[in-house]
Amino acid sequence: MSELWLAGTQGVQALLEGDGRLRVEAYFPAGEDDLGIELPAGVELAADEVLPDADWFAGWRERARPFPVGRTLFLDPREPREPPEELPAGRTLLRLPARAAFGTGSHESTSLALELLEEAEVVGRRVLDVGTGTGVLAFAALLRGARSVVGFDVDPASPFHGRDNSALNDLHPRLFAGRLSAIRDRPRFDFAVVNVVPEQILPEMPELVRLLRPAAEVILSGILAERGRQVLDRMRGLGFEERDRRLAGDWVAFRVSSVESLI
């Protein structure tokens, strides 16, 4: 399925047919006729159709249940009107209603970033959340003791989802819709979490690094495993070395540190 993600799919699901064959459904914006995907041997295109606008999350929300992530978090994607479930011992609840195609923590790229964030030292540090979505990583950083968090996303709906979730969780990062260039140079950040596909963020990494203190750390997620080496090579060229990584399915996430912090 990695080729579908590289081609820009907005969602993928795999379904086992009654005859034992696997059917893969991938969704792309209407009007994109040539996706540049070469089907491997034994795979054929079964159908190609334009679907009407619909609330595709309605069925998922009906079945959604809270779930643990990492060692300490318990994420609840249900609407606030749903009765609370018992919180497992040693875990902290984050309420993140599934109202968009991102940010509940169920996708591997988000859960991997959350796991790495649990192992990092963020107490008292200024954190930048690049591609914040619904704010889940920003909230997790505040729970880990971050002094302050700034989160942004190019999706104009993101800060509105984040604002609602801030009220639900009584956690208050500063959120905005926009690009990296909107952030002033000072004061610099001690830590960054970046849950953005490499195609979108790698060209902006030098600008991101300029916003970081010399001994800063960065968590990088949203990376297909086959692109991991490319991302690490780019970060090494900017003066960072790998400290930790997590793998799940086709996805990988890294925690890297400025070389100055390793001396």
User: What structural class do helix, strand and pairing data support?
Assistant: alpha/beta
Query: Any idea of the CATH topology of the largest domain?
Result: Rossmann fold
CATH level 1 class label of the largest domain? Alpha Beta
Helix content: 25-40%
Give the number of domains. 2
CATH architectural category of the largest domain: 3-Layer(aba) Sandwich
Number of helices: 9
Shape: globular
User: Residue-averaged pLDDT, rounded?
Assistant: 87
Strand proportion: 25-35%
Rg estimate, integer Å: 19 Å
Give the beta-strand count: 12
Fourth-level CATH superfamily of the largest domain: Vaccinia Virus protein VP39
Alpha-carbon distance between the termini? 40 Å
Strand ordering within the main sheet: 8-7-6-9-10-12-11
Q: H/E series, N to C?
A: HEEHEEEHEHEHEEHHEHEEH
Describe the structure.
By secondary structure, the protein is α/β, with parallel strands linked by helices. It folds into 2 domains: 1-53, no CATH class; 103-262, Vaccinia Virus protein VP39 (Rossmann fold). The protein has 9 helices and 12 strands. The protein has helices spanning 2-6, 58-63, 108-119, 136-143, 158-169, 198-201, 205-210, 228-237, 259-262, and strands at residues 11-16, 22-27, 67-69, 73-76, 92-95, 126-130, 148-153, 174-177, 189-195, 212-224, 240-248, 251-258. The strands form 3 sheets. It has a 7-stranded mixed β-sheet, with helices on both faces. A 3-stranded mixed β-sheet has the order 3-4-5. It has a two-stranded antiparallel ribbon with strand order 1-2.
